What we know:
Blueprint: E1 5-9, H1 15-27, H2 31-34, H3 50-53, E2 65-71, E3 74-83, E4 89-97, H4 103-120, E5 125-131, H5 134-142, E6 146-156, H6 165-174, E7 182-183, E8 198-200, H7 206-216, H8 219-225, E9 254-262, E10 265-274, E11 280-286, H9 292-303, H10 305-310, E12 312-317, H11 321-326, E13 333-344
Parallel strand pairs: 4-5, 11-12
Antiparallel strand pairs: 1-2, 2-3, 3-4, 5-13, 6-12, 6-13, 7-8, 8-9, 9-10, 10-11
Amino acid sequence: MIVDQSVRAARxxxxxxxxxxxxxxxxxxxxxRRSLGVPAPSATRPRISLGTLIPSWLPLRSPSxxxxxxxxGVIVGSCRAIEEPHRDDWVITELDAADGPMAAEVxxxxxxxxxxxxxxxxxxxxxAACADVRENLELFGQAGFMAYxxxxxxxxxPEAIRGPRSWxxxxxxxxxxxxxxSARTDGAGADGTDSAELQAAGAPxxxxxxxxxSHATPPAIARIEGYGAADxxxxxxxxxxxxxxxxxxxxxxxxxxxxxxxxQRAGGFxxxxxxxxxxxxxxxxxxxxxxxxxxxxxxxxxxGGDAIAAGLLSPVRTYESAGMRAAxxxxxxxxxxxxxxxxxxxxxxxxxxxxxxxx
Length: 359
């Protein structure tokens, strides 16, 4: 028997049904095929999933739109998107469907309705990240999304902090800053390497951070993401720039950022998002020619014992070769690869073409 399906806005009375749906989807072995699958689970660490990071269905960042699919009075799918701060873009943070033969159709209906809703709101672009599997890539491709980059999700397991060094690491993270605002990480880093001095990153460093990002990012991808120097001014208290697959999903109790000066430029950048429950977040950029493991060792020391004990999730773009080489040297291991996608909604404003004058 064919049951009619409908898509509607989520209601507060849907709470328990959405909790149950989220648990069923993200606890299943094929969660990355019936959801966005970020971060993608792997055979070695299958429990590192969205359900691990966000135990409740209730989003930690309020959605701009939340749609549900209903069939026979039962909720069988959920789709959420949030508005990206400072831009007219939406980021899709959830696209789930219950197990069943119509799961693909449910997700397609939700995604199509979301795109239509975005058009009514004059959204400029949609962004999404999904596990690198056929079910996701075909679905987004049919909806007009373009894949433009991939991220490797790295995980550093929780490490017990024992002995007399534990208090020192907390001191380094919280209060060992000199008068210039630099973090004093002159001793050995978390991996035993010598750590270079780190400087707290803030608005005055925006141009140097933009220069570092431009160095690490291929021009075609830089044009898509469209950052300017001003976008980097808030990196020390907002984990929005640079874009990653994880920062739209997570809510941070605090954000820190550091850079490593190098030949009057930024040689390395790291952004730490603290989490009260679950792994902490780390996004970093390393310039070619910098000792990446030593830089990350200093960052781990500056983050302190709470972050080390909680574990870390770190998204690294696959084209960031220096970062990809440095991550495993300081205890990170890859747990999955995700694809970054974008869909243009609003036509780009273009300069008028030059034409010869008519006499």
